[in-house]
Every structure is written in C-alpha cells, then in structure tokens.
Amino acid sequence: MTELFSAIGHVKSVYTLVDFYQYIKTVEYLICVAFFVGFPMFYRYMMSGKNSTQEAAH
C-alpha cells in the first residue's frame, strides 16, 4: 500500500503502446472513482443549505 502512495504523482516511463494504454486507463479509472465519490458529497453539501432557506421562507 505504501508503494501505491509513493508512486502517486511520479511520471512513469512506458516503452510499449500496451503499457501506455494500461497506465492511462488506470489514471482514468482513478479520476472516475474520485468523481463518483466527490460529486454526491458536493451535491449533498449544496442541497443542505437549500432546506434551511425554504423553511425560513414559509
């Protein structure tokens, strides 16, 4: 696990097209996972303030 965290942010040398594709695919999957975790949290944060303003208006 420590190897994973130490490798984040380093530029990796690739020598074949398959290695390059696998590296790019891994980075893309990590971006997707971050979005799927981050967006619902952001949406919940944005909608939490909406409930208090609606209650104050009524």
Kindly describe this structure:
The chain is mostly helical and 58 residues long. It has one domain (2-56). Helices cover 81% and strands 0% of the residues. The chain contains two helices and no strands. The chain has helices spanning 2-7, 17-57. The longest helix is centred in the middle third of the chain and has 41 residues, at 17-57. The chain is elongated. The termini are far apart. Keywords: Membrane, Transmembrane, Transmembrane helix. The chain crosses the membrane at residues 20-43.
Features:
58 residues, mainly alpha, 2 helices, transmembrane, transmembrane helix
Write the SSE topology.
Layout: H1 2-7, H2 17-57
SSE sequence, one letter per element: HH
The number of helical segments is 2
Shape: elongated
| Major sheet characteristics | none
Low-confidence stretches: none
User: How much is the average pLDDT?
Assistant: 81
What is the straight-line distance between the termini?
A: 52 Å
Structural class by sheet pairing and helices: mainly alpha
In total, the number of strands is 0
Transmembrane segments: 20-43
Keywords: Membrane, Transmembrane, Transmembrane helix
